[in-house]
Specification:
The chain has 283 residues and is α/β, with parallel strands linked by helices. It has an eight-stranded parallel barrel, surrounded by ten helices. It has a single domain, classed as Aldolase class I (TIM Barrel, Alpha-Beta Barrel). The chain contains twelve helices and eight strands. The protein is 53% helix and 14% strand. It binds ligand TD4, calcium ion, sodium ion and zinc ion. Sodium ion binds next to strand 3. The site of zinc ion (ZN) has 5 residues, from loops. It is an enzyme of class 4 (lyase). Its cofactor is Zn(2+). Pfam families: F_bP_aldolase.
């Protein structure tokens, strides 16, 4: 069934597990996510980035996700990932999203607070929950030095002020992860996570979780992470299976014979994440 993000994350926060938030931009990825959730009896958040909206069309990807979510036997939320443009966030609210991220983390704190507070008031008026970001979760491609990444990490005091003044439902924090594939091993600042959780006591979001070792993920969940964003690992599972298929049979030409197996490969990766995060069996 289609539910709001906070309905899923409030339970995860209370019971101490995390829910996967997986990016989609088409039919097969959406199928992989929903089938994985059904097979592991996990609640799940299906999210679309601004790039995904452009690729699929906002009404089209909303229809695909909402149709499958409403038929699902597990709780499913439709989330806007990294909504950086206020009007895009509004368009998603008009198109049936049940959770939105207003990502104004690039703005100075006071401006981030202002725009996020406005989104919270509008979204809550529509029964939709809101994620925001404090600190900068960059990409592994960003050529920033280690201590620049350190400086970009979320400051607990700022996070408390931000959460209080905006009324957000869940907060994305920067504790050492990055979007995209990692070159070396990411080092997560668990003390910082512990402190932020104790001070805010709301569901927390880990971005850039593809490529983070399983032990680190488990530790982050035990310290209060409740939503974990995964995209790169799904893309790589898709591409691996695609290459295998073409190598095995260079004559295959039916998209269903190519995309179907790729869907299954993505589904397997997603199921493992749901088990690792502790969401399996929680639906
Ligand atoms: O935190 C994450 C996932 O990070 P990951 O790369 O570790 O999976 N995300 O928020 C997913 C980011 C998706 C970006 O999509 P576009 O390419 O359309 O901009
Ligand atoms: Ca990553
Ligand atoms: Na997000
Ligand atoms: Zn992210």
């Amino acid at each position: 069934m289609l539910v709001t993000g906070i309905e899923i994350l409030k339970k995860a926060h209370k019971e101490g597990y995390a829910v996967g938030a997986f990016n989609t931009s088409n039919l097969e990825i959406t199928q992989a996510i929903v089938e994985a959730a059904e097979e592991t009896k996990s609640p799940v958040i299906i999210q679309v980035s601004e790039g995904g909206l452009k690729y699929a069309g906002i009404e089209t990807i909303s229809s695909i996700v909402r149709t499958m979510a409403e038929k699902a036997s597990v709780p499913v939320a439709l989330h806007l990932d990294h909504g950086t443009d206020f009007n895009t966030v509004m368009k998603c609210l008009r198109n049936g999203w049940t959770s939105v991220m207003m990502d104004a983390s690039k703005l100075p704190l006071e401006e981030n607070i202002k725009v996020t507070k406005t989104v919270v008031e509008i979204a809550h008026g529509m029964g939709v929950s809101v994620e925001a970001e404090i600190g900068k979760i960059g990409g592994t491609e960003d050529n920033i030095t280690v201590d620049e990444r350190e400086a970009a990490m979320t400051d607990p005091e700022e996070a408390l002020k931000f959460a209080k003044e905006t009324g957000i439902d869940y907060l994305a924090i920067a504790i050492g992860t990055a979007h995209g594939p990692y070159k070396g091993e990411p080092k997560l600042d668990f003390d910082r996570l512990k402190k932020i959780k104790e001070m805010l006591n709301i569901p927390l979001v880990l971005h850039g979780a593809s490529g983070v070792p399983e032990e680190a993920i488990k530790k982050a969940v035990s310290l209060g992470i409740n939503k974990i964003n995964i995209d790169t690992d799904i893309r790589q599972a898709f591409a691996r299976r695609l290459r295998e298929l073409i190598e095995k049979d260079s004559e295959v030409y039916d998209p269903r014979k190519i995309l179907g197996p790729c869907k299954d490969a993505m589904k397997e990766v997603i199921k493992q994440k749901m088990i690792l995060f502790g969401a399996a069996g929680k639906a």
